[in-house]
Design goal:
The protein starts with 11 loop residues before the first helix and ends in a 5-residue tail after the last strand. The strands form 14 sheets. It has a 5-stranded mixed beta sheet with strand order 31-32-36-33-34, with no helix packed on it. A 4-stranded antiparallel beta sheet has the order 16-17-20-23. It has a 3-stranded antiparallel beta sheet with strand order 3-4-5. α10 packs parallel to α14. The protein contains 20 helices and 36 strands. The chain is α+β, with helices and mostly antiparallel strands.
Length: 708
């Protein structure tokens, strides 16, 4: 299985590390088995499951005890771990995009628990034994049918292929718990990955592919039902979601004729409008207004402090930029939205308040009206994309201003902002104070004062990956090195500066020992996200310097305390009071760190966008970013799509990211035929042949100096 990422450099330990990370990524995110159905080819993710490792047994997971097993997974985790699927099997197409876009609700949130796929058979059940036909009478998994076929003595593979080809698939999910603000940020990664392989099909994906809306049995309460006055006189935001009695745990938005569907562009626009709607009172971060924070679960007290996240603002800006670019590129293409969402877009575009608090109040008022409307029967509106240019321009302007304000708060982008109410009015009901379900009196806030929390690594990491210029990245990188975000003793990074001066009200993170779990430790997933940001921002020299002390494969096993091929949840930093623990890795290795490693591998060995579409022609273009030290006798090997070998020949021993480095020629090997391309790219049918898997080997010759 790990041969799919087989890579050969001058560092065998790194080559082995890529394989282990690929395997760990599969164990959490699954590996897609491509099967034909009545709905077209799909990816059925084998082995996927929640990260319930032996070292982290509190995290419940289940795996189907059968052939073709799949298990439950958390939305954020599974989505991230499938980010690079298409670079290992392009036959997957847009399936991952459609699955996770479907789970985005009309309110912009999503269920936590992703429970795989099930199927319904639309063929002739009578041709199978009773044990098989009875299973085909309702929803089933491939594993169940394979088991019944095996027990009946029938050939499993051929019959299963036939059954699935006569079946429809169904996405399965459940609310689980909570609405995390960061979950939406990973959906665009799937769109971006698809665009890097199928740029010629992006327009079809955005405007012709349609998806439904998941419906959770939970609603986000309006401000007048969750802003409460504590006995000590402070105002807080508690119990922000309402569980609807007797509602189905898993449902899809419908009208009288069935599921309501919108196109992918419409779903992305729905997402952007909802998130923009709860930009915080200073117009900087996205409010944690639904009980949960962002990526760092241990900051679970921040929502109660009217907290917001700049990380999510950065990601929303990236999404809005994409929607705006697409609107200019395809101005006449139709967009389908719920009519209520269409009305929300218009209402948000007509807000004229210039003062931050008033603008926030107006946005939230419109968003709360919209959420009420979602409880009524819905239908779909169709408009040309240029109809939404006004609101997209407004969102773009406001988000650009938000990041300017965020940078003004301190030289390193803050990750978390909290707000203290500076004024409030009691909410009365029949002349007496109205109380929330928790018994505390409800209030209407009339003013806020903002305060940033200590610096965390997350917002800078996301800015580097999404929006930063190389010059900005260089300045940010140097600034971070001078803060507590950098552990100079171990020469790696940690989640945040010291939290010692803050109360436990910011969340359980404050109860942890410094340098342990999410608190001021080297939380590997976030450190790797930061390293990926350096790479994507073009800081190649800095990236390769940093991985020497940040990649576990290059760490001293005697200090790390486990195989350097294994990732940890976190590594104890010098912030920890026990020097014996410094540099030691702890807890389960199945985490988002593997998704970041695969993304770094792609950027390093293949490039961000191996395929582009220009002048109605598909172009294949490799842009490796490799140091000369990686080349063993002038050669580095890797794989594309899990099977096509790429062999880089670097006789000049030049860093491939050097401005003087260029690809002199490319040789394609296909069914005994060699195609020589004296250029740095492959165009037309040959490029399509590479994507279709018809090329076994690609030899790339890199030279230094002027291109001849």
């Amino acid at each position: 299985m790990t041969n799919a990422i087989e890579t050969k450099t001058s560092f065998p330990i790194l080559d082995a590390y890529f394989k282990q990370c690929y395997l760990d990524n599969v164990v959490r995110g699954g590996v897609p088995m491509i099967v034909e159905t009545l709905d077209g080819p799909i990816g059925y993710h084998l082995f996927s499951r929640k990260h319930g490792d032996l070292e982290r047994d509190y995290n419940f997971f289940s795996i189907e005890p059968s052939f073709f097993s799949q298990g439950n997974g958390a939305f954020r985790d599974v989505l991230q771990n499938r980010r690079s699927d298409i670079f290992f099997d392009p036959r997957l197409g847009d399936f991952n995009v459609r699955q996770f876009a479907s789970l985005i609700q009309a309110d912009g949130y999503n269920p936590l628990s992703v429970e795989g796929l099930k199927f319904t058979f639309d063929g002739d059940q009578s041709q199978y034994p009773v044990a098989v036909s009875s299973a085909l009478s309702g929803e089933f998994t491939p594993g169940l049918i394979a088991t019944r076929l095996h027990q009946a003595g029938l050939d499993v593979e051929s019959h299963l292929v036939s059954i699935l080809a006569s079946s429809h698939f169904h996405f399965k999910a459940a609310f689980g718990e909570g609405y995390w603000e960061d979950h939406f940020t990973y959906l665009f990664d799937l769109v971006d990955s698809f665009n890097a392989v199928y740029p010629d099909q992006l327009e079809k994906l955005l405007f012709e592919r349609t998806v439904p809306f998941f419906v959770s049995p939970v609603s986000v309460l309006p401000r007048c039902e969750k802003y409460v006055l504590k006995p000590n006189g402070t105002v807080r935001q508690y119990d922000a979601v309402h569980h609807i009695a007797n509602a189905a745990q898993s449902a899809w938005l419908q009208d009288d004729s069935g599921e309501l569907r919108v196109n992918i562009y419409g779903k992305l626009l729905t997402l952007a409008l909802n998130k923009y709607g709860h930009l915080d009172p200073n117009g900087i971060g996205l409010s944690y207004e639904a009980e949960k924070p962002g990526w760092n679960d241990a900051m679970n007290g921040v929502p109660g402090l009217f907290g917001s996240g700049v990380s999510e603002t950065i990601e929303l800006q990236k999404l809005v930029n994409f929607l705006l670019e697409s609107a200019h590129r395809y101005p006449k293409r139709p967009v389908s939205l719920l009519k209520s969402t269409d009305a929300l877009a218009l209402a948000l575009s007509q807000i004229t308040a210039s003062e931050s608090f008033e603008a926030w109040d107006a946005r939230m008022t419109e968003l709360e009206k919209y959420r009420v409307q979602l409880s009524t029967p819905q239908n779909v509106a169709h408009n040309e994309i240029e109809n939404y240019l006004p609101i997209l321009e407004i969102m773009n302007q406001d988000l650009t201003a938000a990041l300017v304000k965020a940078k003004a708060a301190r030289d390193i982008y803050p990750t978390y902002l909290i707000y203290e109410a500076t004024g409030y009015e009691p909410i009365l009901e029949n002349g007496v104070p109205k109380k929330a379900n928790n018994g505390l009196p409800l209030v209407r806030v009339t003013g806020f004062k903002m305060q940033p929390l200590p610096a965390f690594l997350e917002a800078p990491a996301r800015y580097l990956s999404s929006l930063s210029s190389k010059e900005e990245a260089q300045t940010l990188y140097q600034s971070i090195k001078l803060t507590e975000l950098y552990d100079s003793k171990n020469r790696f990074y940690q989640t945040s500066e010291s939290l010692e001066g803050w109360t436990h009200e910011i969340g359980r993170i404050r109860a942890f020992t410094p340098g342990w779990l999410e608190r001021e430790s080297n939380f590997l997933h976030m450190t790797y996200k930061y390293l990926l940001g350096l790479l994507k921002a073009g800081l190649y020299e800095e990236f390769y310097q940093e991985i020497q002390t940040n990649f576990t494969c290059f760490m001293d096993p005697k200090v790390y305390g486990r195989s350097p091929l294994e990732n940890s949840s976190f590594i104890a930093t010098s912030s920890n009071p026990d020097p014996k623990k410094h540099g030691q890795g702890f807890y389960a290795r199945l985490s988002g760190s593997t998704a970041e490693v695969l993304s770094m591998w792609r950027q390093m060995f293949i490039g961000a966008r191996p395929f582009v579409y220009e002048k109605e022609s598909l172009i294949f273009r490799l842009t490796p970013k490799l140091p000369s030290a990686f080349f063993a006798k002038g050669v580095v090997e890797t794989k594309l799509f899990g099977k096509t070998r790429i062999i880089y020949h670097n006789t000049s021993q030049i860093d491939t990211y050097d401005s003087k480095a260029h690809i002199e020629r490319i040789e394609l090997y296909s069914s005994g035929t060699v195609h020589l391309i004296v250029d740095d790219q492959v165009e037309g049918p040959l490029a399509e042949g590479i994507r279709n898997g018809n090329v076994s080997d690609i030899h790339v010759y890199i030279e230094g100096g002027p291109k001849q």
